[in-house]
Every structure is written in structure tokens, then in C-alpha cells.
Write a structure and sequence with these properties.
- This protein has 14 helices and 15 strands.
- It is α/β, with parallel strands linked by helices and 419 residues long.
- It folds into 2 domains: 13-50 and 314-418, Aspartate Aminotransferase, domain 1; 54-312, Aspartate Aminotransferase, domain 2 (3-Layer(aba) Sandwich), CATH 3.40.640.10.
- The strands form 4 sheets. A 7-stranded mixed β-sheet has the order 2-8-7-6-5-3-4, sandwiched between helices. A 4-stranded antiparallel β-sheet has the order 11-12-15-14. A two-stranded parallel ribbon has the order 1-13.
- Helix 4 (52-65) runs antiparallel to helix 11, helix 5 (81-92) runs parallel beside helix 11 and helix 6 (110-116) runs parallel beside helix 7.
- The chain is globular, with a radius of gyration of 22 Å.
- The protein binds pyridoxal-5'-phosphate (PLP).
- Residues 44, 109-111, 134, 188, 192, 220, 222, 251, 253, 259, 264 line the site of pyridoxal-5'-phosphate.
Length: 419
């Protein structure tokens, strides 16, 4: 008898984005006359074409594959040496951070990495996440058996939720002294969904906390390219001691427009340890290396060349222009919301604007109003956790024309509500 992974049965139905898609389809079916007017600012998917340097490199790579003389078959499981070197140098060593080429592991994107990394950890770790949170961290921990049953009103038993609210400017605080320390702490900065960035002092506290409790920090820097706050670390390794306790996740999805191309990477320093039940320290680097070489043959050749091209001089310029474009969208959305008297966070160092729903409306109720009356798809804050209730997220990943139209429609919605 084949046994099923019963952890999957604990997952609550209707992962956030399928539920949004369901409501949008239902509205489109009900009002086909309005369907073409719908503007999607819900899921954070990019809209602009790839940087030309990446396209040229991928085309050149495909041409190599078309010739016997330059054909490539299986490559190294964790990425070609030149790609790993471009990353380790471009994102770390050139910024004074001590990361070796072989501490970088290339993947098909960081969503997978944030869950797959759990394979090299033991069962029974106490996992801490922020509330609100990027849902994939929680769901993958449920699948791996690190959570108990779903709780009425949201969340899972056994997961430590770190509340992020207006009172702490949506930045997670250390668990109170005397409470059981988590073993793994997911931190995301710039944050999805709140768009906030963690300041250096707070990250120093987290690194000190992790070292004291022999815990691990999973630092998700998928939106690092959008962080231009000099007081907010772009990499966790800017903090002394992080090489002993932190694993960093990066993605080319939002910086290089690679959501469809698929490429990201993990940084796992050789000095990061986890422990056997008997308390012996074990370096995680060889385990992660083994995991990659056993479970994967790596990222496709052309994609690797495309990612590498983002580190050339031209590639960097093009990435910067792409990020600038989305950040201008974020500014337009943020200021548009503020002009209506809506309170916002984020949108300055992140492509997401986190907004308080007007008149204390609930998240899903306001989502429906925005969909039905403004034909704008947002993301209800409650979908990211209990503390997200009463807020919504607007994504800046859209065309300029759509972003400007969203601001106009929100204005009309607000003025109708006022009369
Ligand atoms: N981490 C966060 C916080 C994200 O928001 C996303 C994508 O939206 C990812 C990771 C996943 O990125 P990738 O496309 O590299 O899988």
C-alpha cells in the first residue's frame, strides 16, 4: 500500500493566488463586457521584456548548442564556474563581502530554494515566520511536516508567527525573552508583502539572537535590487557573524525580469552549522552540495548564460533601468494612495505598496470592491496572515499606462464612496 504524505492534507485549500484568480474569473464570466478592462496588480509578476544583454547571451548560448563543436550536455549540478564567479564577485566580493564562488548554488528560482533547503535540516525544527508572510515559506514547511494542524482564523499550529503591525512599522521583533526560541527564522527584506526594509540595527539583533540560540536565519533577498536605503543591508552577510548562521536566497525574477526564464541562487557559507540531536555541529555546505548533485542536473545552459550577462557592464545598466522603471511605478502608486488619504508603507525600496484599507474595510471585502468597481486586482492583506487583515498590497509590476490608470480609478472609487 502506497502511503501518502499526509502533511499535504493539512494544507488549507485556496492558496492565496488561486483564490484571487477564481474571483477574477468569476467576475469576468459575470461581466464579460468589463473583463477586458481588468488591470492586474495582484500577483507580483513582471511585465517588461528581458534586458537585451540577457537575450543576446541566451541566443548565443542556443547557437552554441546547435553546433557539434560547441555543444554542451550536462553541466555542473550547482552551476557553471564562470556564472558562480560572476555572482560571487558581482553581488558580494565587490561589496566587501567574503563569499567564495563555491558557496553560491544556482537554481531555477528562489521559491523552490526556500522550501528545498528544508531537505538538509532535521524533522522537528521550530520555524518562525513573520505575519504577514510570503505564503510559500509556510506551505513548504507544512509539506515537510514542520507544522501542525491549520488553526481557525489562519495559520498553523507549531509555527512561530512574528507579528508585523503598524506598531512595529511592519518589522519583526525578537521573540520575548523566556519564550522557546525558534530554530529557523525566515526574514524577507525588502519585504513581500509589506514593502518594508529591515534596518541594520534590527538585523544585527536577529543575527546575535540566531547565534545565541544556534538557530538559522533564512534571509530572502529576492527584491534586493530594489533596496536603495543605505541603512538597510542588501545582504545578510553585511552583518558580522552572519556567515555562521545565515543562508541567503536571491532571485533574478524581479531584477532581471526572469519570472518566466527561471533562475535564482542560494548562498550557503561553509561556516554555517546545524546540529545533530546529540548536539554535534555539522556544516551544511557539503549537505546542500550533495543534495544538488543527487537531486538535480542544474539550470539550463542558456539560462545560466543569460543570468551571467546581467553582471556585465551593459547588463548592470539594463537591470538598473528595469528596476528604476518599476520603482517609478511604485512611487506613482504610493503617492496616488496617499493623495486619497490612504495610509501606506513600502514602495520606496520595494516594488510593493502596502496600504491600509479605507474606512476600516476588511481585506477581502475591499479586494472585491476594487475588482468589481475599479476593475483593479490587488492582493488582500489577510491572504498573507492574520496581521494582514485590514490591508492590501498593490504590485508595481505593470506598464506605466496601467499604473496611471489604476491611480485614476482608485480616485474615482474614493470619490464615489465619499458621496
Ligand atoms: N521570495 C519572495 C519573497 C518572493 O516574493 C518571490 C516571488 O514572488 C520569490 C521568493 C520567488 O522568486 P522566484 O521567481 O525566484 O522563484
Amino acid at each position: 500500500m502506497a502511503l501518502v504524505n499526509e502533511n499535504y492534507l493539512k494544507l488549507v485549500a485556496g492558496y492565496l493566488f488561486p483564490e484571487i484568480a477564481r474571483r477574477v474569473s468569476a467576475f469576468a464570466a459575470e461581466r464579460p463586457d468589463l473583463a477586458k478592462e481588468i488591470i492586474r496588480c495582484g500577483i507580483g509578476d513582471v511585465t517588461e521584456p528581458l534586458p537585451p544583454s540577457a537575450v543576446a547571451a541566451m541566443n548565443a548560448a542556443n547557437a552554441e548548442l546547435a553546433s557539434r563543436a560547441t555543444f554542451k550536455g550536462y553541466g555542473p549540478g550547482t552551476g557553471y564556474e564562470s556564472v558562480l564567479a560572476a555572482i560571487a564577485h558581482g553581488d558580494f566580493r565587490s561589496r566587501g563581502l567574503d563569499i567564495a564562488d563555491d558557496e553560491v548554488f544556482l537554481s531555477d528560482g528562489s521559491k523552490g530554494d526556500c522550501g528545498n533547503i528544508l531537505e538538509i535540516l532535521g524533522a522537528g525544527n521550530r520555524i518562525a515566520v513573520t505575519d504577514p508572510v510570503y505564503p510559500a515559506y509556510v506551505d513548504s514547511n507544512v509539506m515537510f511536516g514542520n507544522a501542525g494542524a491549520a488553526m481557525a482564523g489562519g495559520g498553523y499550529e507549531g509555527i512561530v508567527y512574528l507579528p508585523c503591525t503598524e506598531a512595529n512599522a511592519f518589522l519583526p521583533e525578537l521573540p520575548a525573552a523566556g519564550t522557546a526560541a525558534p530554530d529557523v527564522i525566515y526574514l524577507c527584506s525588502p519585504n513581500n508583502p509589506t514593502g518594508t526594509v529591515m534596518d541594520r540595527a534590527r538585523l544585527e539583533q536577529w543575527v546575535a539572537y540566531a547565534r545565541k540560540h544556534r538557530a538559522l536565519i533564512f534571509w530572502d533577498a529576492a527584491y534586493e535590487a530594489f533596496n536603495r536605503d543605505p541603512n538597510a543591508p542588501k545582504s545578510v552577510y553585511e552583518i558580522a557573524g552572519a556567515r555562521e548562521c545565515a543562508i541567503e536566497f536571491r532571485s533574478f525574477s524581479k531584477s532581471g525580469g526572469f519570472t518566466g526564464v527561471r533562475c535564482g541562487y542560494t548562498v550557503l557559507p561553509k561556516s554555517v552549522m546545524a546540529y545533530t540531536r546529540a548536539g554535534a555541529a555539522v556544516a551544511l555546505h557539503p549537505l546542500w552540495n550533495r543534495r544538488w548533485n543527487t537531486r538535480s542536473n542544474g539550470v539550463s545552459y542558456a539560462v545560466q548564460r543569460g543570468a551571467e550577462a546581467l553582471y556585465t557592464e551593459a547588463g548592470r545598466r539594463e537591470v538598473r533601468a528595469l528596476v528604476d522603471f518599476y520603482m517609478e511605478n511604485a512611487r506613482i502608486l504610493r503617492e496616488g494612495c496617499r493623495a486619497l488619504g490612504w495610509k501606506t508603507w513600502g514602495g520606496e525600496n520595494a516594488p510593493y505598496v502596502w496600504c491600509k484599507t479605507p474606512e476600516g474595510r476588511d481585506s477581502w471585502g475591499f479586494f472585491d470592491t476594487m475588482l468589481r468597481e475599479a476593475r483593479v486586482v490587488t492582493t488582500p492583506g489577510a491572504g498573507f496572515g492574520r496581521c494582514g487583515e485590514g490591508y492590501f498590497r498593490i504590485s508595481a509590476f505593470n506598464s506605466r499606462a496601467n499604473v496611471e490608470e489604476v491611480v485614476r480609478r482608485m480616485g474615482r472609487l474614493a470619490s464615489c464612496a465619499a458621496h
